[in-house]
Amino acid sequence: MDSSSIRDNIRTDIVEVRLMGRNKVLSSKRKALQDVVDLGRCVTESEVLIISNKLKSKSSVQVQDLILLKLAFVQTANNIVSFLKVKGALHGLVRELSSVKSNYQLVAAECCCNLALGDGRSCLQVAKAAGPYLIALMSGSNYNLIHISVWALGNLVGSDEKVWRLLHSQGFLSRLLELISEIDIKSDIPARDEILQNSWTALVHMLHMGSSLLTEEETKSIAKIVTNLKCTWDNGLQVVQYLLSCMDAAEEELLKNQVHIKCLKFLTETELNEENIASVTPAVRTVANLAAEPSGACSLEIVANFNLLQNITQKIFMSPYKHLVNEVGWLVGNLVNHNSPEVQSALEEFSLDFQIFESQVVFFNS
Fold it and tell me: Superkingdom of this entry's organism (predicted)?
């Protein structure tokens, strides 16, 4: 098969993969859309105001009222603005978070989760009023409430730097790390996968928004916890490790726990498909980042595991995921151009192989 045919086949595969991705995203949104369909109509702004005033005046609020409010917040941002303009409505909603009725608590938490879809100013209001209550619910025994509370806090913490600072001061990071550690060792709790996934998403937002706000000790603490978990395959974990690999304070802990070798083994054992690509991409980037550390110790260990590297690169070159070719190019470049004499000496044994890698990167990018 000539080079033109190979490129055409890869492009065809890419189109199919993108279509699968769009269908997957659409399917993930169908539950929320189905709620609206089941309701039979959109919630009007006047209905939002009626429920808001009920919450404000401590009138008898029904679960159905809160369900309408929850759906109203995802239908249009104007409903969020209208709700927050009613003085006392948000505090009334927070009151339901501390209700003795778990069904009221759950829907109130879902309302907070959807309120967090608003702009930074709206999220700051929600975080001030509901943040401490949502964080407290993370320590409860109702796992559905924990799941929704973490989801809401994750939405909030990634919305704005002021919100990040506020939730950080309220103790969200420390409680989140405790929860991840607890969930990691428990395999039989309800909603475990949902809680863990939402926890990873929240931690990703914490790191992304707060990369320059976290102290060195906090960054080291995060790295120590996530690199000692039993779970090694989760998409969120791979993204967290990648973000940590971009932070100097985490480097020592990542190298000490052999994250680069774990990633290489993960990449070797993992099939390249639509389900796994969200884990594979950050794993490759993590190895590439760590390969650039100045001492050369990491690069030497990567070269010592050349058979793993070779397996990974060939698998990526023949896959439809063209963006991974660039990531491999970055990894190979960091190895070949490393300033350490020891690394350069180790590379001599595989010099021809690395020349082939570099030519393949150019070919598959053309």
Answer: Eukaryota
